[in-house]
Amino acid sequence: MNGQIVFIIWRESVEALLVVGILHGWLSHAPGGAGGLRYLWGGVAAGLALAAALGLGMMRLAQSLGDEAQERLMAGAMFLAVALILQMVIWMRRHGRSLRHDLERGLDAALTVGRLWGIFALALIAVAREGSETVIFLAGTLAAAGPIRFNGTLLSVASGFAAALTCYALLQAGSRWLRWSTFFRISELMLLLLGCALLVTGAGHLVSLGLLPYGDPVWDSSWLLDDMGALGGLVASLTGYRAMPDTVTLATWIGYALLVTLLLRPWRRAGRLAGPA
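^ FTR1 family iron permease, sequence as received from the core. Prediction below:
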């Protein structure tokens, strides 16, 4: 079972479930909202179909390319996944506090003017966004992991989705020990670490392609945690840890940390000025 796949499916599924849950809860209690449920579920189905089409398109494109071109494509998918992770974290910083309010305001506008297709569009965009990001993340993750058995991948996907359903049920039940704010903070950190893991693997692909120089290991910490072992391999896949990092890996770590700091500094400052929610 692949830890990265479990986390990706969990993270993306629970956010999509959050959005759909807010829409469903509002429509179930709003006057005249019951008629919008058909549009809601239609939007969910259309969003899933759009994400699946993207996945099939990427698979066919990869199969039509040569070995070196496939490696370049997968490296590009990893870098794109890193960019999406950073964009998602910034979006969470910007909209996390007002997500429910923004969605319900859009629903109010849709019902007021009788545009139930607006509800369809809200659901489609929410599900397609999370689904398409999942496809891109999985493409990068599977490329980083190398050959994976189908059963293991299927088990990872099922485990991630089961974890998402469990978290969603707990959150909707009003659990005091796992609130949405806590979920966002924990998943934000895990997303940033996963972004580092994908970036390190992508840089490794560029080294193997001869686009970046190969260097000797700077140190060897395998005595403490071997990234080829069971525990070390899991840590490496989720954080980008390497027991024997070369100069490219070290530069990737430092550059990523600086980039994250620069990108999140405005939102950290805005959060302090806004005060607690």
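Residues 273-277 have pLDDT under 50 and may be disordered.
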